[in-house]
Write a sequence for this structure.
């Protein structure tokens, strides 16, 4: 079945540091890929998405590129802020059952001033 | 602004009690979902509904049931709560389409403790 593997946290960075959170996936067919973010005390919000190979999703300074050859969708940000502290989830939708999301286990990011 | 609300943020129940978790969305979405979120396990889908009175099992339906009598409301029912059902429960909703993925909108979650 489908699966998503993302780097284990917690990740602790200083403000303005570069962020990478690795995500790889296993899926049949051609999945769509997503990053969701969960701020403390809140539900999940869609951060960015990519629906086909080589697409780059971007939002709020975050970027991720859909790499079919390496089955990866790594999240990056050039300069993190304290307000980016949250849990980040990588997820995929396999397209066959377009309603269903398969999530990774989440990565807790803490950014210190 | 889109909104998914859940009836309680925190809930404490005793083993064996019947528990109802309510979710309401105001976006006229066809699809609604219940997930549970556990540390180290991420989010796992319990049940999914694609229309009123229609439901499908997710990955971990055992010990749960659901009800969708109105389009905007999706209830998760723990028939006889057990301590291993202590968790964060998240409701979500989305539009539906055969060929396109629509964003799922999440509620704030209900943290359920079963003692």
């Amino acid at each position: 079945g489908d699966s998503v593997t993302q780097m284990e946290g917690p990740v602790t960075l200083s403000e303005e540091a570069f962020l990478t959170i690795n995500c790889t996936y296993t899926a049949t067919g051609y999945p769509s890929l997503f990053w969701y973010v969960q701020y403390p005390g809140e539900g999940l919000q869609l951060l960015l998405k990519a629906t086909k190979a080589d697409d780059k999703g971007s939002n709020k300074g975050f970027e991720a590129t859909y790499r079919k050859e390496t089955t990866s969708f790594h999240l990056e940000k050039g300069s993190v802020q304290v307000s980016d502290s949250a849990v980040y989830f990588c997820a995929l939708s396999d397209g066959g059952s377009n309603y269903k999301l398969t999530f990774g286990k989440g990565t807790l990011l803490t950014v210190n001033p | 602004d889109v909104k998914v609300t859940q009836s309680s943020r925190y809930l404490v129940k005793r083993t064996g009690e019947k528990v109802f978790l309510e979710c309401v969305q105001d976006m006229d979405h066809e699809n609604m979902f219940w997930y549970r979120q556990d540390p180290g396990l991420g989010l796992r889908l319990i049940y999914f509904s694609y229309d009123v009175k229609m439901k499908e099992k997710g990955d971990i339906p055992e010990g749960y049931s659901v009800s969708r009598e109105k389009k905007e409301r999706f209830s998760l029912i723990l028939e006889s709560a057990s301590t291993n059902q202590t968790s964060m429960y998240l409701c979500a909703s989305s539009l539906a389409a055969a060929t396109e993925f629509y964003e799922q909108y999440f509620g704030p979650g209900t943290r359920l403790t079963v003692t």
Q: What stands out?
A: The interface with chain B takes residues 32, 41-46, 49, 51, 89, 93, 95, 98-101, 103-106 of chain A (CB under 8 Å).
